[in-house]
Write a structure and sequence with these properties.
With 129 residues, this protein is mainly alpha-helical. The chain folds into two domains: 53 residues, no CATH class; 51 residues, no CATH class. 68% of the residues lie in helices and 0% in strands. The protein is elongated.
Amino acid sequence: MSYKTEKGMGRDPQSAKVKATYLRYLKATGGDKIAAAKEVGMDEVQIRSWRHMDAEFQKAYKEIVAGADETPKLTEQKAKMLQLIAAGKSQREACEELEIGYPLLRTWKKKDDIFKQRLLKLRGGLDED
């Protein structure tokens, strides 16, 4: 990743190193944003600020969190989600049980047509969105 040097914009050389470290931890934790932020000693507000101000950082972040490649943890979570829905849980209840945010479920449905179709089939063709 290349970052322009702009003091105060989160693009100075020190910030670039912290961002790269954060992204490494984010990938290593399977997209666990809170754990990765703790590892680099940052809070989620600063990370969010970087995401809004730095397009390169945002792109790299989204690839890890939203799953540009299917990580084993992500695939496992999707499978568990489908099992919970099949057992009669609502989508929100399943999200709470898996400790994931509902917006992540919406992202899965937008990016993964197979997952979305399986979910719709389990729900009888109904969707909460």
